Amino acid sequence: MFVGRYGYPKVRLGPMIPPMHGDTTILDRTELWAGKSIEEIANYRLSLVRGTFTMNVRDTTGRYLENMQELAMSERPAESEATFEKKPLADFELEKEVRLNAESAPFGPAAPLKTFKASSLSADQRIEAAHYDTDLKASDAVVELYRREVETSSIHRVLSVGMLGLKKNRRLVPTRWSISATDDIISGVLARENDSSPAIDLFEVTQYTHLANYYSVILIPDDIWSFEMIESWFTGSGQIATGADYEDARGLDHYPTIAGAYFAARLAVAEHLARRRRKAAALVLREIHPEYVMPLGVWQIREGVREALKKPAQKFENLEQAVSFASAGMSVSGQEVARKSRLWRAFKSQTRITDFA
Fold first, then answer.
1. Which of 43, 73, 222, 299 has a Cα-to-Cα distance from 195 of 20 to 30 A?
2. 66 vs 217, 273, 324, CA distance in Å?
3. Left (φ > 0), alpha (ψ -120 to 50) or beta: where does 253 sit?
């Protein structure tokens, strides 16, 4: 399902329906897409036909929305049937939304709904419990679902269609915002809870490449959490452009310039460290090559960094060696990374208690 953001607080939303029978789980579960090609993922998504209707985000009742919420709770693919007021086609507004919405995966043609119903539903009891707990704050519900091993793709979906939070505060959340909010909430909690863990001993670098995106993750021994992501990409003239965002232990004081990519990468790093029960600062380098011909959503950043952190780490004695290794296969040099990185400057200038040992 998809909730748009144009025209907020009146938004277009609706189910995305595959015109096929059988197990269609892979069409919408981003956690299963690591290792798939751009063509495969585009085919999954562009086969989905989107039915649309318009609602105010504060209106969380209505037959179509209730059907979508039941679908969002279903733990298995369900039977669904829709008729449309006209032939589903791409329209200018929808194309603009897809083109600019790099957070979510793409989808196919759309048309206003005439009728819609779903059947053969089997509710996920974890999601159902969170939905019916109208005294549970949305942020707490997101974390509770994550702890109960509900995948992030399912959590942002139920948040998007107004199923979580205090009853009086529930509302629709545009898909783009719900994805970033889910990643932000979970990673923030994991980082805070891991604050008392011991720091890693050496500088660690892991790498992963998929979908013409190159990732290097540098974990830095530090007693204080900090995180930075530096993205680079090729412009139409062949030049390299960069964007970066950084936070220290006080957190992020602005919405990141690299948008949802920042929160997706931060979640992957925070959960890796929490699983190890070790603390570190982290610098994530992402380089996007021209072969990445269409935005597929920030899921690929989350999964790309997750896959990188599964690999055996190369270990180094100092930050210069780690950054040099991490950037060796990229177009931005280690010296350029050091020049642009706020984390580098903070780490180099920071006085630690161990300096007096």
1. 299
2. 42, 38, 53
3. alpha
Smallest CA-to-CA distance from 313 within 215, 197, 213, 217 is with: 217
Name the residue ranges covered by the structural domains of the chain.
2-113+122-188, 197-356
Instruction: Extract the tokens encoding 312.
Output: 């055996």
| Amino acid sitting at position 261 | A
Query: In one letter, which amino acid is 166?
Result: L
Per-residue pLDDT tens for 123-169? Answer: 999 999 999 999 999 999 999 999 999 999 999 999 999 999 999 99
Half-sphere exposure in the Cβ direction for 246 (13 Å, CA) = 13
* Sequential DSSP letters for 88-133: -B--HHHHHHHHH-TTSPP---EEEEEEEEEES--B-HHHHHHHH-
pTM for this structure? 0.92
Amino acid identity of residue 271, one-letter, is E
pLDDT of residue 28: 87
Task: Kindly report whether the peptide bond that precedes residue 9 is cis, defined as omega within 30 degrees of 0.
Answer: yes
| Contact assessment for residue 2 and residue 14, using Cβ atoms and an 8 Å cutoff | yes
**34 class by beta-carbon count within 10 Å (0-12 exposed, 13-18 middle, 19+ buried):** middle
